[in-house]
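I'm stuck. Protein, please.
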Amino acid sequence: MHGYEVMQRIQEMSGGAWRPSPGSVYPTLQELENAELVRGEQVEGRRVYALTEPGIAEARKSRDAEGGLSWITAQGAAAGRMELRQALDALGAATRQVATSGSDETVARTLEILADARRHIYGLLAEG
């Protein structure tokens, strides 16, 4: 995969809970390449990375030690927090759509809905 594909895959695997930035992915890939855990090569003008044999062994070792990837094995409160993050992302996408193509009336109504939702959420926090 090239770096952007790595970022997309992490986001997909985490159910949207983690969206790494290029500023974190590319230096990490370089460190992994320096440690000979991944191999990078130019393919059709892009730098593409693949795990090396030591990289595969290290990934297996980490997965075994941690009992799986936290976002895949999340249960209980962690799963609820992931669902909350996904709902927030979906709300953000809908709001961005209103911002780019909604009428002035739709924008105004959306602002009212968001203000009302914020008040309700703070009310929940005040309850306990």
In short: The chain has a mean pLDDT of 86. The two ends are 45 Å apart (CA to CA). Residues 76-101 form the longest helix (26 residues). The CA atoms of residues 11 and 19 lie 5 Å apart.
